Amino acid sequence: MIHYKTSEEVQKIKESADILGRAHGEIAKHIKEGVKTSFLDKIAEEFIRDHGAVPSFKGYNGFPASLCISVNEVVVHGFPSEYELKDGDIISVDCGVFHQGFHSDSAYTYPIGEVSPSVLALLKATKDSLYLGIEQAKSGNRVGDIGHAIQKFVEAKGYTVVRELVGHGLGKNLHEAPEVPNYGKKGSGPLLKQGMVIAIEPMINLGSRNIVQERDGWTIRTADRKPSAHYEHTVAIFEDRTEVLTTHKYIEEIVKF
Ligand code: MG
Ligand code: MG
């Protein structure tokens, strides 16, 4: 069942998303070679709690941390760890904030130091595909229009779309209906309407689309161990417009990519 939000509820999600955007900015300040990914998690949790909010992911179905940290061939849901970032890595930082009863969710993939041109191109295409998906997320369109736009764009460049993991509605719960796949047919799926709040989050692979789950029960990596990129925004659909509630602006003020 889709929960349609009132304007007041969307406003609360926006306030949650503002804390999230600024948490991402704090994390971005510390993303560099030699940093342990567990340190990034500590920064995020402190920032979120200092702003009177709660990290959405910590304890969610037993997830142990405030961030999902997914390096190189890890697609999503990696654990922060003692691993130190090194030159040439890519790192996806996914974070959620729970504030005034509502969740927000966004992710960003960063290059560390000198990343190969082919991997940088994957990051750029994945980020661009997120915005192409958002363009289709408007009242009167269908969920399949979002996935179609993402899939068409990235597959034309030779990349592949992860199928098993998808975007989602969110609000009082971190994951609500509808599912928002990053692939699909134009004009298919649930109708997008005023009051829907959804997370759009393309997960795009350089090699094959196949994934495997590590034995920790969470970490998802590519089967061929080639890199994967992930960007995410939470958006609200209104009758006459779509608003991107989360922001990457605090990240992009700091990192050149
Ligand atoms: Mg997320
Ligand atoms: Mg999400």
UniProtKB/TrEMBL annotation:
MF terms (GO), sorted A to Z: initiator methionyl aminopeptidase activity; metal ion binding; metalloaminopeptidase activity
EC number(s) recorded for this UniProt protein: 3.4.11.18
InterPro entries to which the protein is assigned, alphabetical: Creatinase/aminopeptidase-like, Pept_M24, Pept_M24_MAP, Pept_M24A_MAP1
BP GO annotations: proteolysis
Pfam hit, one: Peptidase_M24
CDD domains for this protein: MetAP1
Swiss-Prot/TrEMBL catalytic activity: Release of N-terminal amino acids, preferentially methionine, from peptides and arylamides
Coiled coil location: none
Keyword Metal-binding carried by entry: yes
Residue numbers binding substrate: 77, 175
Binding-site residues for a divalent metal cation 2, renumbered to this chain: 105, 168, 201, 232
Required cofactor(s): Co(2+); Zn(2+); Mn(2+); Fe(2+)
Domain Peptidase M24: 12-237
Any one Gene Ontology cellular component term annotated for this protein: cytosol
This protein's UniProt keywords: Aminopeptidase, Hydrolase, Metal-binding, Protease
Keyword Protease: yes
Residue sites binding a divalent metal cation 1 per the record: 94, 105, 232
Family (UniProt): Belongs to the peptidase M24A family. Methionine aminopeptidase type 1 subfamily.
PANTHER family: METHIONINE AMINOPEPTIDASE
Free-text function comment from the UniProt entry: Removes the N-terminal methionine from nascent proteins. The N-terminal methionine is often cleaved when the second residue in the primary sequence is small and uncharged (Met-Ala-, Cys, Gly, Pro, Ser, Thr, or Val). Requires deformylation of the N(alpha)-formylated initiator methionine before it can be hydrolyzed.
Subunit structure, interactors included: Monomer.
Name the record gives this protein: Methionine aminopeptidase
UniProt organism field: Algoriphagus boseongensis
